[in-house]
Amino acid sequence: MRSHRPVVVDVAIDDRALAQRMRALVRADATLRLGEADAMAAVRIRDAGPEDDADAAVIVITDRVGAAKALGAGAAGVLPRHTSGRALAAAISAAAAGLTVVAGDFRDLIVEGTDVAIALDGEGDAEPASVDLTPRERQVLELLARGASNKAIARRLEITPHTAKFHVAAIVAKLGAAGRTDAVARAMRLGLVMI
Asked: Residue 100 gets which letter from DSSP?
């Protein structure tokens, strides 16, 4: 059985309360060790981007906007402020092993084609604050959210498949979506449908 040396962690956070919480979480885990002035940290925990941290993997504790910026700047990981000790330890171990860690809260930041990924490229517009759907479009949207095809929507609403396709296209356009799936995701975020 091999013994593993603890991962040296440096906490470089400006927010005093958050820094104390992160240090306490690191101290509570036997696989981690807080770095001292003369120790070379393998992982640095920050609350800003990894601009000057070429010597260590950087995990940024932040919000959604900061997470997008940190990922763009090359952070090894992004975690929310409410991260648990267990999640922090796992993220530190992964970052020390050369992996990139993205908390579930920020998962959509790395999924190609999402609004945030498009925004990171400087393209795309914000979702409309409200969408004016007709009662029939709302019915079609509910069925879309359940995964119904145009033919299934047509049968259920007793309309032609062509009319169903027309309604789907109108919904996609009104939501500014890239397609059916994106329309459902946007509608969910706007509270138009529940799954």
From this structure: -
Query: What is the pLDDT tens value at each position of the chain, 195 positions in all?
Result: 444 667 777 777 777 888 888 888 888 888 877 776 555 667 777 766 555 555 677 888 888 788 878 777 777 888 888 888 888 888 888 888 777 888 888 777 665 444 444 444 443 445 555 688 899 999 999 999 888 899 999 999 999 999 999 999 999 999 888 888 888 888 888 888 876
User: Which pair of structure tokens corresponds to residue 60?
Assistant: 């940024």
Residue pair 22/11 in contact (Cβ under 8 Å)? The answer is yes
Q: Are 177 and 131 in contact (CB under 8 A)?
A: no
Question: How far is residue 62's CA from residue 64's CA, in Å, rounded to a whole number?
Answer: 7
β-partners of residue 102 are 78
**pTM of the model as a whole:** 0.50
Structure tokens at 28: 């509570």
Residue 140's closest CA among 66, 193, 74? 193
At 84, list the tokens: 């648990």
* DSSP 3-state of 1: coil
The residue among 193, 115, 117, 116 whose CA lies nearest residue 148 is 193
Contact assessment for residue 57 and residue 34, using Cβ atoms and an 8 Å cutoff: no
Three-state DSSP class for residue 12: strand
